[in-house]
Specification:
Strand content of chain A: under 5%
Structural class of chain A: mainly alpha
Distance between the termini of chain A: 62 Å
Largest interface: A-B, 49 and 49 residues
Oligomer: homodimer
Largest sheet of chain A: none
Chain lengths: ~200, ~200
DNA sequence: AAATGGTTTAACCAAGTAGTTAAAATTGTG
DNA sequence: CACAATTTTAACTACTTGGTTAAACCATTT
């Protein structure tokens, strides 16, 4: 048993599978391609993950956790809604620049099979509670206009995630290359919180 | 040759294929399922559309046109940015309520194969020109704050499309059923333009 | 009736796919 | 070395899938 290794085989498989599943989706991915990407053979792949579904859920679970954990956390650490929004947006965009296809992957697969996959995003519900507290505080101090907190949260998520989800369409319509896209996201770390707060400040 | 028929067979196939492709995506869809949904057999399906790729592109082309045509049009008919935004958002949300999976379908497939599919959304580039004119006019009249027009357009699209794209996640986190989702979208026909305009008004 | 074109039937093919198996090879461990 | 766990090899299965073929069927038109 290899105890001291830079990387366990199971992790190498999960990394390779994440790359393939993210790019091609569950239906389009091939077990052979995952094995190749992991530098192993199909037999060993099935030795670690019995079938495609289990492998996929392993990948999805990890991706869902990476998406939600660090991002909601910054909200929990904030005690002011405006400041919380600023930090949330920054954290979200920074995170997505590291893994730009993540939101599209999660959303695409959630649409395909919500029944079995929704349980993996319950982390999001905890973050929602933090958010609601911050919102209630700001409202009671009359610092924001009258707005449905759920709707505000949808708007925040939309403004963060959509550029990544619609990236091909967006870069095509505006004639942007990868570098221009990156610059745009960097700008949005400032402009998106401004856009939101200007809209809700009492 | 059946000249007088409620619906041509080719159209029946395209309708069935749209339903299947939208639900399962190009990779997940099966030609047999399309044939069944169209009430014909596989041989006739290939008689009308030589292979899966051609059938898919036929569907995608139609979907992309339905997505962009009527929506950009209301912008062209407006001569004031604020009014244009109001009408654009209303038209977009109304349209999406009729075909809620459309944006997710287009975006998902564009991410999978941008190279061959991006040409089908060039309609969007024409709409962009209308929008830029309205924006320039409002700016020259000092009615809006300093903001990158491309970024504003991204924000508008994001606030319109994201609830539909992220629908399963959204309804799950907020514990909404189909009716609650519909009500939320109806509310957004008013609140989204307000949200945007409050943010950009000089 | 003959011809035409859309449609069905039913079988077929070649390639690909997830998953299995069993034996051999490799590697680390005591 | 001996033992056990990991990894490879290579073949094989059962099944699915896109696509093809050829003959027959049927409704209209000519």
């Amino acid at each position: 048993m290899a105890t001291v290794k830079e990387e366990t085989t199971e992790q190498r498989i999960l990394d390779a599978a994440r790359e393939v599943f993210t790019r091609k989706g569950m239906a389009g991915a091939r077990m052979q391609e995952v094995a190749d990407a992991a530098g192993i053979n199909k037999a060993l792949l099935h030795y670690y993950f019995r079938d495609k579904q289990r492998l996929f859920e392993g990948v999805f679970k990890g991706s869902a956790e990476r998406q939600f954990s660090c991002i909601w956390q910054v909200l929990a650490e904030s005690d002011d809604l405006f400041r919380g929004i600023e930090r949330f947006v920054s954290a979200y965009l920074d995170r997505m620049l590291e893994e730009p296809m993540l939101p599209q992957f999660l959303i695409s697969e959630l649409n395909r099979d919500p029944k079995t996959l929704l349980e993996y995003i319950d982390r999001g519900k905890a973050g929602r509670a933090h958010y609601l507290r911050l919102f209630e505080k700001a409202r009671s101090e009359h610092r924001i206009i009258d707005i449905d907190p759920r709707e505000l949260l949808v708007n925040i998520m939309a403004l963060c995630a959509h550029p990544f989800i619609a990236r091909p369409m967006l870069t095509h319509i505006h004639g942007m290359n990868d570098e221009a896209f990156r610059r745009m996201i960097q700008k949005r770390r400032k402009t998106v919180p401004e856009f939101i707060i200007r809209s809700i400040r009492a």
